[in-house]
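We emphasize that the prediction below concerns an isolated chain of 379 residues; any contacts that depend on oligomerization or on bound cofactors are therefore not represented. The input was used exactly as deposited, without trimming of termini.
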Amino acid sequence: MKLILNEEQQMLRDSAKDFTEQRTPVTHLRSLRDNSDPQNWDKEVWQEMVELGWSGILIPEEFGGSNFGLAGISVIMQECGKTLTPSPLLATAVIGASAITSFGTDEQKKEYLPKIAAGEITTALAIDEESHHAPENTNTSAKLEKGKWVINGKKKFVVDGASADVLIILARTSGVKGENTGLTLFILDAKEKGVEVIKTDMADSRNYANIVFDNVQLDENALLGDQEAGGEAADKILDNGRIALSAEMLGNAEAAFNMTINYLKERKQFGVLIGSFQALQHRSAEMFCEIELTKSAVMAAMQGADENNNDLQRMASLAKSISGETLHLVSNESVQMHGGIGVTDEYDIGFYMKRARVAEVIFGSSNFHQERYAKLSNF
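Result of the prediction step, given as a token string:
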């Protein structure tokens, strides 16, 4: 496996870099936060992303996409991470598109994929029900009654759930909480009768929601994939999301590191630049090394996904675990090296720490993925 980008992927990254620097610098996120934007991302900016083809990168050409692979969307996510770009890219162009492409029926693909590619709808994956990521603990029930699926339960911390048009939910059709069997995926309109979406404000000023399902009735064709196979399907969908999110977190760490290095070259203490202090040089060197290691893990995972690597589950967990630990370290060190101003709202560096704390736990924390990696390795 070559841990380098091909020419087309490099062009995608360069295009994303230009776009994010010009259209979505950190001041863009700050503006959305200060104006209390109801969906926490800009529709006009999202449409520009759609016009660039980002929403259809994981969608087959026959449905309006480019089928460019997870590596293609991941390099874009990395650049978006550098400027903390808020958008439904992860939940829609990665999670929703890959879920429907991989497990949808022909009818579902024809109905949803062209709309995702054209930016007409956004999606969200409603999977967790506790404060920690644990899909096997799904307790939301789905019962077949008189030809209708009846859904009851609650979902927490749904990424982009507050603005999603379409929801993909994991529900239990048999078995008990704690079992990965007996789980089924469903796809439904977010405005379906009995669905209550409660927007949740988080530290990073992004879009999240808690969702309640109260006797929601769905047709039998609302299943996404096979009945009772939702646990395994959700795992594959989540791994795509984890890899793309790891790329975004890598971008977060790179930008915070560069911002800090520039500050060390400007700030003077006792009449000298603080970048000349050996202790800070050592800490900077550690951050640099960890970022380089994270690049390798993330690139291996995104390339492995496109090559259908048999070890993809471990690669995804490795990427998410390492990116989480690296971003935690870099965001902490960056704020500390900025001194007292690092925690003030006036400086952008604090936004990276806030994003880090939320991103670390999305789709599983580093601890979750270390344990998963160990189980997959038969430790």
